[in-house]
User: What shape does this take?
Amino acid sequence: MEKRIYNVSAGPAILPEEVLLEAQKDLFSYKGSGMSVMEMSHRGKIFDGIINAAKADMKTLLGIPDNYSILFLQGGATLQFSMVPLNLMPPNNKADYISTGSWAKKAAKEAKRVGKVNIAATTEADNFSRIPKQSELKLDADASYVHYTSNNTIYGTEWHSEPEVGNVPLVCDASSDFMHKKLDITKYALIYAGAQKNLGPSGVTCVILRNDLLERSSDELHTYMNYKIHVDNDSMYNTPTTYTIYIMGLVFKWLLGMGGLDVMYKKNVEKAGILYSAIDGSDGYYRGTTAVEDRSLMNVTYRLPNEELEKKFIEEAKKVGFEGLKGHRSVGGIRASIYNAFPQHGVEALVDFMSHFKKNN
Assistant: This one.
């Protein structure tokens, strides 16, 4: 079999090898149907089985109660920046947003087009190097909802528990750490996540929403922007991203096969621990960029003594099989995205490379 590289790209990101091999096997003719999933009707019996199995497995993995709906939509998390306020801001037309990075800022920007946005807390003055403490949150008890971003891909920070928001509905953009651990779904009114980090290829966005919120979705909304329409049509109002949903369904089966999200979380903590220990034990040669208590398990960000060394580090790492280590263009540095599918031996190989690079430079 062809040798695989160590893909630490932030997204679209690594997929489980087992999933890729199964998809490869069924690419030409899915389960003897004589056609690929990419070719079949989304209204047909075969795809109906695929999408329903994906929903059922997601429900099992996350323990989603019956009073929630699961949607597989398009437009990425970016479209949700608009759909969330358009559907949920009424009738109060105001919402709280917690700003912890670029994507959180973009979500707030779109919400301001719909109603009044209160920035309940921001860590921008600290270059988004930490998550705000509960005591820093200035929440409005009359807000229609509170929105936060659970993991900040660019800055390498992560909420390790949900913000406490009282009786106000909690909305979360979980794009870059969704399903890295089990969540208590009942704490959330709505969660959305682009698939391309932990769930599958780019193209589909998962939305889980509590059904009582659908009362807020006005019939005056543009049809595609209305959650009620998508729930009524079971994610089939228009042609869904059939192949992406199929791959995502295989990822869910892979997660179930390894024992579920509690097992996955244990693996993620162990992997991140290996890499952060190497950073902290390098006598300052490698420097983490975030507050220790807020470090992301998914996106590990760090710096070297200077930018020239960082450039050399990225180039030499590429030669030994590491792809995607360059930090986001807005912040620079190094970023290793070690999502669910990234293997522990890959983290160990990166740590080994880091040790050799330090010794030689």
About this structure: The radius of gyration is 21 Å.
